[in-house]
């Protein structure tokens, strides 16, 4: 978990206060991080941790990313991902 927290803080520094990692528009890095970001929120929910509290700017980025017209209709959401994760865990 400590490594994840370090990674989140590093990502926050990489954003350099921009709306998205590539600047004013969503880029490839935003898409990659956005797909992992939802899982981090699932981990926070399921383990009752607050990994994302270490990176408030990253939380703001996540809100901008998930509400963006290009991705808002395709992101599954925390509840759906958590359910999938629990089903996957049961199979393993």
From TrEMBL:
UniProt protein name: GST C-terminal domain-containing protein
GO molecular-function terms, A-Z: glutathione transferase activity
Organism: Gossypium trilobum
One of the GO BP terms on file: glutathione metabolic process
Source organism superkingdom: Eukaryota
Domain GST C-terminal residues, every copy: 1-92
């Amino acid at each position: 978990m400590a490594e994840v927290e370090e990674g989140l803080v590093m990502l926050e520094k990489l954003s350099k206060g921009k709306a998205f990692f590539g600047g004013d528009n969503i880029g490839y890095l935003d898409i990659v991080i956005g797909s992992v970001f939802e899982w981090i929120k699932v981990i926070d929910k399921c383990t009752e941790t607050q990994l994302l509290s270490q990176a408030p700017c990253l939380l703001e980025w996540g809100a901008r990313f998930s509400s963006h017209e290009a991705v808002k209709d395709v992101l599954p959401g925390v509840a759906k991902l958590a359910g999938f994760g629990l089903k996957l865990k049961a199979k393993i």
